[in-house]
Amino acid sequence: MPCLLPCGTEPLSTLFNAELLASVEALTIRARRVRRGPLHGEHRAGESGSGLEFREHRPYTPGDDLARVDWNVFRRSGRLYSRLADVMRDMPVRIHLDLSDSLWHESRARADAARVAAFAIAAVVCGHEDQAQVFFGGSANDEPVRVRGRTGLLTLAAALEAAGPHGATDIAACFEAAAPYRRRPGLSVIISDFYDPRGLAAVVEALRSSRDRLLLLRVFTPAERGGASVVTGAAMATGELRLFDCESGAAVTLDLDASALAAYRAAYAAFEQAFDEALVHLGAVGLSLDADAALLPQLEALFPAGSLVL
Fold first, then answer.
1. 0.90 surpassed by pTM
2. Of 81, 117, 118, 163, which has the highest C-beta tally within 10 A?
3. What are phi and psi of 122, to 5 degrees?
4. Which domains does the chain show, CATH number per domain?
């Protein structure tokens, strides 16, 4: 695949550069079958017609396109057969980027990781004749950023760079806002910390009826597991604290001691297990991304032998 942007190290923004694109050039997302659509692509559409991927021979019947007649078979057998090929279509890809307040809490590390992941997935998609639509904000009035080719990536980089916190986490609302754009089944990618106040069960319920293949990317930092990012600078302290929810503003007073920290860590471990179980319930592909570590090697784990097959 050709370089999507001019090679070199000139930054597209503070988050994205051509080196990032070069590292995803060899990665592909393949669908075993896609629904019939108007655009050509690299995925089998489950229909026969003209194309380069041979599928089968069929006895010629009046009205068949003569251009499909296999004259080599005719010379050998004296019978007319039409040569059919798999029709190759594009796969619509919708990337749902959660930029709720919790991803910006303390530092921009997780929001940055989420935006880079969205950009990298979009680059893989549009590098192989597909088009990505990137949604963020969760409002039904928000138009997605459409990404197809070099110009689309430049537009996406600018939009992601300019993005900021978008309020409370509501994955169901984000997904529902994109419903008018899901005219044909494809791939939906959801990038979030999945700290939905209604719980992961509500997320599963919202996604269960989707006809799309699902890819869920959970962004986290290791400090969250121990409580350090929740109780800033006081993870190992003791005493009475008043904690505020960074999205709702709700407050709770607790006596922070070893047992309280142990209960928090147990709850977080249960949350991570629930995320893994959600992937199973939804038949989804998923990955937890450590925002403090190099992101691309983690994303590459989704692409054994360079390809993610869905």
1. no
2. 118
3. -60, -40
4. 18-31+91-309 (3.40.50), 54-89 (no CATH)
